[in-house]
């Protein structure tokens, strides 16, 4: 009997992002990768009820945080408590995590080179600092896709004007870790529309010249 195919489900949730004394209204992409039986959530943003509904009766293997900004992690503890699934975050973003959740630590660290497996499909952790110190992307070679968090968007890199961010660092991460992926790789972003590596790669020098 052929196992059910792995698939990617997508939710958009709305809430706020707060850092450095400011607060902004945002809409976030929440990604679920798995099959009919098991799944990972990438970025539990804003609405634990909606994410739980999308999971359904599948086993949640973990809640992967692409980085520690509060709009990407605000619903993670509630979802973890509800499902028993661990929260995974790169240790260098724990300083950001604690701003939102001072009394609840992540459960497991993410490190560059880690491989997570769901429904027979590998998710490879790429440490891509710049938007934040511990930002990561998740590359699924078998699906020709990368979940880029807030590192790479349609039209350029993620924002680097706030604490714990660096424009030269995000450019290096994008150049060395993302633009080296196959050109046809679909980039599923933390906000807004998806894009393709081959559409973004030619514009790197423009981004460097404009400085954001």
Question: Can I get a quick summary?
Answer:
The chain is built from seven helices and 14 strands.
Q: How would you explain this protein's 3D organization?
A:
This is MBL fold metallo-hydrolase. With about 210 residues, the chain is of the alpha/beta class. The chain has one domain (about 5-210): Metallo-beta-lactamase, Chain A. Helices cover about 25% and strands about 35% of the residues. It has helices at about 50-55, 70-75, 75-85, 95-100, 165-180, 195-200, 205-210; strands at about 5-20, 20-35, 40, 60-65, 85-90, 110, 115-120, 120-125, 135-140, 145-150, 150-155, 155, 185-190, 195. A 6-stranded mixed beta sheet has the order 1-2-3-4-5-6. Strands 7-8-9-10-13-14 form a 6-stranded mixed beta sheet. Helix 4 (about 95-100) links the parallel strand 5 and strand 6. Helix 1 (about 50-55) packs across helix 3 (about 75-85). The radius of gyration is 16 Å and the shape is globular.
Secondary-structure topology with pairs:
Layout: E1 7-19, E2 22-34, E3 38-42, H1 48-55, E4 59-64, H2 70-73, H3 76-83, E5 87-89, H4 94-100, E6 108-109, E7 115-118, E8 121-127, E9 136-140, E10 145-149, E11 152-153, E12 156-157, H5 167-178, E13 186-189, E14 195-196, H6 197-200, H7 204-210
Parallel strand pairs: 3-4, 4-5, 5-6, 10-13
Antiparallel strand pairs: 1-2, 2-3, 7-8, 8-9, 9-10, 11-12, 13-14
Helix pairs in contact: 1-3
């Amino acid at each position: 009997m052929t196992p059910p195919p792995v698939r990617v489900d997508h939710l958009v949730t709305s809430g706020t992002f707060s850092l450095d004394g400011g607060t902004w209204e945002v809409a976030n992409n929440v990604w679920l990768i798995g099959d009919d039986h098991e799944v990972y959530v990438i970025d539990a943003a804003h609405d634990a009820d909606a994410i739980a509904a999308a999971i359904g009766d599948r086993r949640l293997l973990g809640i992967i945080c692409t980085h520690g900004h509060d709009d990407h992690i605000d619903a993670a503890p509630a979802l973890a408590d509800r499902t028993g699934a661990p929260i995974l975050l790169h240790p260098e973003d724990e300083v950001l995590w604690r701003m939102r959740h001072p009394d609840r630590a992540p459960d497991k660290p993410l490190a560059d080179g880690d491989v997570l497996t769901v429904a027979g499909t590998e998710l490879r952790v790429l440490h891509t600092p710049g938007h934040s110190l511990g930002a990561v992307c998740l590359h699924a070679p078998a699906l020709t896709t990368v979940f880029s968090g807030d590192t790479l968007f349609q039209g350029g890199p993620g924002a680097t004007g706030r604490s714990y961010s660096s424009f030269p660092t995000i450019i290096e991460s994008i150049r060395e870790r993302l633009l080296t992926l196959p050109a046809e790789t679909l980039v599923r972003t933390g906000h807004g529309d998806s894009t393709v590596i081959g559409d973004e790669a030619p514009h790197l020098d423009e981004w460097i010249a404009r400085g954001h």
